[in-house]
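Batch manifest, entry 17 of 40.
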Amino acid sequence: MPRAFLPSFARRVPSRSTCLAALTGLACLTGLAGLAMSPAAVAQPVMARENLNATLWFQTAVERQAATLAVYRAATARLGAARRATRETASLEQAAQGGFSRKPPAIVLDVDETVLDNSPYEAWQIRDGRSYEESSWAAWVASAQAAAIPGAPEFIARARATGFRVVFITNRRCPADGPFGPDGLHAACPQKAQTIANLSRVLGHAVAPADVMLRGERAEWAASDKTPRREAVARTHRIAMLVGDDLNDFVPRARYVEQDHAARWGTTWVPIPNPTYGSWGDALSLTQRYAALKPWGGPAAAEPAAAGSAASGTSGDTAAKAATAASAQ
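Output type: structure tokens
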């Protein structure tokens, strides 16, 4: 990205006190010697650094913890009603198929930024000036160090106690070339075992392999679209709730129709806030992201309206005074 295109805060290296006071923007990442970044890491701006405020909010803000706790507590309060609503399904695919009212209930959750917190991986990219890479992501997954999203373990424990099957559908992935066993399942998928280990640790119980569905775990699950995996759950269970941080955890983005689907939010669809990444912006370059902003025009743009308002107020005052004088006569 050309230097002239950068926000003004990124065109200069600030003092340490300025960074500590503002704690925002690319300038703080490049200006603090304490971060001990290599010259190569600070040479060029990268998209990951644009995630500074979002990642910092995700890791440190009380408001972020409050938001996920509030969402999960509201969902917990609905478990009893969801258990009894046998004619209701959260899955659009299952609703179209019908025949689900007698099936046992299930709740389907995404994993990343819904149950597991991967913000340390995002923070590592920001600090070292790196972009997302499959190899570094695989190393993070293998470490199984992700903590729980606040509220998720308690919600899942209560759902299990209430009689729901809890299923995790994630786009963590198995190698695309197989091999696949006689049962159709991938026979060598390291991220499956690593994800189960991480989930089991933060949730405090052993998560069954059948309850974790990865992208590519079956040949027909090769795409990022989670529809085939939701359909697999729907064959045996009524999907009472869907929980996720991305629209695609509920419905393919291209199929979302606000007037038809918005009523599901907060009832059968439980959205978890995630400002750091998502399908809403993954396809956009950094330049495109700036171009997509809807900015205010600045003080100059507000002056005519303000002047008009002042003029209107003056004329209104004059008319009021005239009316008062006329009535007095």
